[in-house]
Design a protein that fits this description.
- The complex is a heterodimer of chains A (167) and B (376).
- By secondary structure, chain A is mainly α.
- Chain A contains nine helices and no strands.
- Chain A is globular and about 45 Å long.
- Chain B is built from 17 helices and seven strands.
- In chain B, a hairpin with a 5-residue loop joins β6 and β7.
- By secondary structure, chain B is α/β, with parallel strands linked by helices.
- In chain B, 58% of the residues lie in helices and 9% in strands.
- The chains are: A mainly alpha (167), B alpha/beta (376).
- At the A-B interface, α1, α8 and α9 of A face α4, α16 and α17 of B.
């Protein structure tokens, strides 16, 4: 299963404008999460996972940290633990589109399209910056053999991604 | 007076022909070429803070030269990069004590894993590079600078003003760069044609207005006002090319084809070999169905700058429209060799297949474009 490098999505989904709502949590906690994703981006995935686990240890109630861990585990290929992290995030904040997308990716990659589709569609509604969700839905429809729908989702994803990049 | 009679053997004639062809090719490519998407000579380049292979964070200010700083964006997968790295090593050795700094910025790929680090280190060790190499994790500087091709060379003054830019590693532009450095650092007089090519610097007020326009484009609230700023810039310095190109792209985005063409024509009037103006004109002509003229423009664009990827994929799209899929595929591959990170290549590929009702290939192409856009 090739999910690499999903780690790069972490910053976009979690710290971007369409990610989780910024809580009034201390800057220290945000920095902790950022440091973890920076480590992963530099190719130090193992260190990134350790770092975010430390952040969670300090404050297990931050959904954002669980989402970051979920994506890093997804990048590592540890689907089971990634799913647990996304579930934890959704338990803390049920309307977290990044966690829904993450869970949708895992279900879709596992062939569970029936559950993945509504989850990803739900994430699309919640997320104002849905390029990644469009991508996952495109992949899902491609797997289901609906090329027309897959194509239109990939194109919408491109438009959304370009808008975000300010092109 | 004795006249030396030279007998032209077929071999000699062949050599002369090669020289003539090469000279023509050199003259064709001896133009100043835009190496960056929006910035250009006279404008201010963005700052950067990147890590060395050892993990030490370095910025422009900590590495800049007293007189000039060369930034070389390179990657181990690019054959031309190695030539550029070697050239920069020579320049570094020659001028390091005279105020020139060279910084290699590696743009290997989005995520740098152990293999990438080994590849990068391998090149640095093999070429025995004595100047620092910074790693562009996440390709942030690559995007900030709007690099089009790999390698790309940008020369900055100590205030980060762009003094020279070069995409790829073309022979004549490299010679221009060497003359430019000799003139700037040693005070040597550059040949007049080189001075003409490298000597122009836009009016400061015009640059300021152009900068305002670029800034305005970044916000939806101020987006429209960019037009006014670009117009102001070209009034202040009618020879300054960037406002025409920026305004052309601005109109292009809004589907105002005629107005866009007018701006690119203005740019071409001043710089007939401006690759961006040629490519965008080609695309506009292609969209309005003027295939022959479009082909002419795009083929000229690929000749004047072999490292400008859009002209290749626009031409690929044109060939696809004309039914020459083999040629189209070759052109897309050529573009990918120059800049495999340019997702637009796959968008144009997708458009081509979609127009031909090849849904499967279109889907794959768009999917690949989105993957690149999302850095997956």
């Amino acid at each position: 299963m090739n999910c690499k490098p999903l780690v790069l999505l972490v910053a976009a989904l979690v710290f971007g404008p369409g990610g989780l709502q910024a809580s009034p949590a201390s800057a220290k906690k945000v920095l902790c999460e950022k440091e973890a994703s920076v480590l992963a981006r530099e190719g130090k995935l193992e260190q990134g996972i350790n770092a975010i686990e430390q952040c969670i240890k300090k404050d297990p109630t931050r959904a954002k940290a669980h989402v970051v861990l979920g994506y890093l585990l997804l990048d590592q290929g540890d689907m089971q633990r990634a799913l647990l992290s996304f579930d934890k995030a959704l338990g803390l904040r049920p309307r977290t589109s990044a966690a829904k997308t993450g869970k949708g990716i895992i279900l879709s990659r596992g062939g569970n399209f029936k559950e993945a589709e509504p989850l990803l569609k739900d994430a699309l509604k919640l997320n104002p910056d849905p390029a990644r969700t469009y991508y996952e839905l495109g992949v899902l429809y491609e797997q289901l053999g609906d090329m027309q729908l897959a194509l239109s989702h990939f194109k919408q994803g491109i438009t959304s991604g370009e808008q975000k990049k300010g092109r | 007076m004795t006249v030396k009679i030279i007998q032209y053997s077929p071999f000699r004639r062949k050599n002369i022909l090669i020289i003539l062809v090469a000279t023509f090719a050199i003259l064709q490519s001896s133009v100043s070429v835009p190496a960056l998407k929006t910035m250009g000579v006279g404008t201010e380049a963005p700052n950067f803070s990147l890590k060395t292979l050892a993990g030490e964070k370095m910025s422009f200010s900590s590495l800049k030269g007293d007189k000039l700083t060369i930034l070389l964006f390179w990657a181990s997968w690019s054959r031309q990069s190695e030539k550029a790295l070697k050239q920069m090593e020579k320049l570094h050795t020659k001028y390091k004590d005279m105020g020139l700094a060279v910084i290699g910025i590696n743009v290997e790929r989005q995520t740098i894993d152990d293999k990438a680090l080994t590849d990068i280190k391998g090149v640095i060790d093999r070429l025995q590079l004595s100047y620092p190499t910074l790693i562009d994790h996440g390709l942030e500087s690559f995007r900030d600078y709007g690099v089009i091709a790999v390698p790309t060379t940008v020369i900055l003054d100590p205030k980060r003003k762009i003094m020279f830019e070069m995409s790829g590693f073309p022979l004549v532009t490299t010679l221009d760069m060497i003359h430019f450095l000799a003139a700037s650092i040693e005070g040597k007089k550059a040949p007049s044609e080189v001075a003409e090519r490298t000597g122009y610097h836009p009016d400061k007020k015009a640059v300021r207005s152009w900068n305002m326009g670029i800034k305005a484009l970044k916000s939806t609230r101020t987006h429209k006002s960019a037009e006014k700023w670009f117009k102001k810039a070209s009034v202040k310095d009618p020879q300054f090319i960037l406002p025409y190109l920026s305004l052309g792209s601005f109109y292009q985005e809004q589907d105002k084809g005629e107005q866009a063409k007018e701006q690119f024509q203005q740019a071409l009037k001043r710089q007939p070999d401006n690759v961006k103006a040629l490519s965008q004109m080609g695309l506009l002509l292609l969209k309005e169905g003027s295939i022959i003229k479009a082909r002419e423009m795009l083929e000229k664009a690929t000749q004047v700058d072999e490292a400008y990827t859009p002209s290749y994929y626009y031409l690929g799209y044109l060939n696809g429209k004309e039914g020459d899929m083999k040629k189209a595929a070759e052109l897309y591959v050529s573009a990918e060799k120059i800049n495999p990170m340019d997702y637009q290549i796959n968008i144009y590929r997708g458009m081509m297949f979609e127009e031909q009702n090849d849904l499967e290939q279109a889907t794959t192409s768009y999917k690949n474009a989105l993957k690149q856009l999302l850095n997956l």
